[in-house]
Amino acid sequence: MFGTKQSVKRKSLGERGARLFLALVLAAGCGGPGDSVEAEPGTRAASLTSVSGFAAVTRLRIEPYRFTLAKGESKSFHAIATYADGRELDVSYSARWSLSSRVGSSVASIGSGGSVTAKNTGVASISAELGSYGAGASLYVSGPKLWIPITPPVTGSAFKSVWGTSDRDVWVVGESASILHWDGLRWSKIPSGLAFPWNLNSVRGTGPSDVWVTGRNAILHWDGSRFTPLALPSTADETYEDVWPSAANDVWFVSTTRLNRWDGSKFTAVPLAAGEYLHAAWGSGPSDLWVAGMAGRLLRVTGATAAADPFGFEGLRISRMGGFGSDVWAVAPKGKVFRYDGSAWTSQRIPVPSNLLSVWARSASEVWATSDDGKIFHWDGATWTSVWTPAFLEIFGIWGSGNTVWAVGRDGVLMQYQY
């Protein structure tokens, strides 16, 4: 039987017999040199061709490994077997499929050949088995109150910051001068205008035609059509960690050892004490700025002077600051959160001791914080709770508008949450 070319007749063997026959052939790599097992064109096994030689299966994977559906939509996942001689074949109808819900209940159903139908909002794990080999994939059924991963036009880079003016005007910046823009329909890669691809750390602005980006040896301004690098206030190798604009002609820039103010035409340095190392900033107006540094250092900037505040953040380095009006939030390692309510600073602690990396506040009763282990936490005005995400590494930035919140992080992580 294996010395000549044979044809599997689905009609004569029957569905069950044909599938069993193909499973045995594919798992074992049966056949003599030059032999093949083919299916009639138009049958489900039409892709299972050229099963030749005595090679055995060495690997099994599912494509796509991650997919998002809306409730009621269907999608076919494919089980791809790799053989010792390098061949790859679609073995979807020979594999055994299963599905289990990870977030939510009865998220989806799965049929023969890897056909999936989404039922309820949540996350499901999809498994395929062929002989002793197995593979997995993730299915996200979009809906309210669920973090969904998005595939960005740039992959691999760490995204460090996200900000926008609306849910149809969102900016993301990161390593290697990566700048992305969301217009409500699609993500696009935007040229930075830099001669060298410096890493970018922060993005904020005052409107669609006034966006500022900072990074190592980089201060960029978006005027509505393109980014223009500004002449830097220092010729030294400097990392501009954060930016806070109160108006187009009043922008604060925090670098490692400097605090500069832009008036629309020039930079003015704010005198600092020796040994200051700055990292994050947030303001409530043109003459009211908080700046955090290393080892719990906190500065209050009013007008042209910066004075040390005695609060001290318990000696912790502040990762990022955010706020809503005079309600200011700061996050730090060891799960520590600090809040200024307009009159005094107080400290809080999230449910787990994760190192916090960023914070965004919509109001006094809606605050989000991210961590270095893929966790995101939500404050409802009384309690911090952990919200499930598909991420496992650092989430560096978070921001939202309308009913949507965005989060970005290591290895091109880009996620969306909707209410």
- For the biggest β-sheet, the strand order reads 4-12-11-8
What portion of residues belong to β-strands? over 45%
Radius of gyration: 27 Å
Structural class, by secondary structure, is: mainly beta
Summary keywords:
single chain, 419 residues, mainly beta, 4-stranded mixed β-sheet, 4-stranded antiparallel β-sheet, 40 strands
Structure characterization notes:
- It is a single chain.
- This protein is mainly β and 419 residues long.
- The protein is built from 2 helices and 40 strands.
- A hairpin with a 4-residue loop joins β32 (336-340) and β33.
- The longest helix has 14 residues, at 15-28.
- It starts with 5 loop residues before the first strand and ends with a strand.
- The relative contact order is 0.09.
Tell me briefly what this model is.
By secondary structure, the protein is mainly beta.
How do the strands and helices of this protein lay out in sequence?
Elements: E1 6-8, H1 10-13, H2 15-28, E2 37-39, E3 57-63, E4 66-69, E5 74-76, E6 78-83, E7 88-90, E8 96-103, E9 108-110, E10 115-118, E11 122-130, E12 133-141, E13 147-149, E14 159-166, E15 169-174, E16 179-182, E17 187-189, E18 200-207, E19 210-215, E20 218-222, E21 227-229, E22 240-247, E23 250-255, E24 259-262, E25 267-269, E26 278-285, E27 288-293, E28 298-302, E29 305-308, E30 320-324, E31 327-331, E32 336-340, E33 345-349, E34 356-363, E35 366-371, E36 376-379, E37 384-387, E38 395-401, E39 404-409, E40 413-418
Parallel strand pairs: 1-2, 4-12
Antiparallel strand pairs: 3-6, 5-10, 6-7, 8-11, 9-10, 11-12, 13-40, 14-15, 15-16, 16-17, 18-19, 19-20, 20-21, 22-23, 23-24, 24-25, 26-27, 27-28, 28-29, 30-31, 31-32, 32-33, 34-35, 35-36, 36-37, 38-39, 39-40
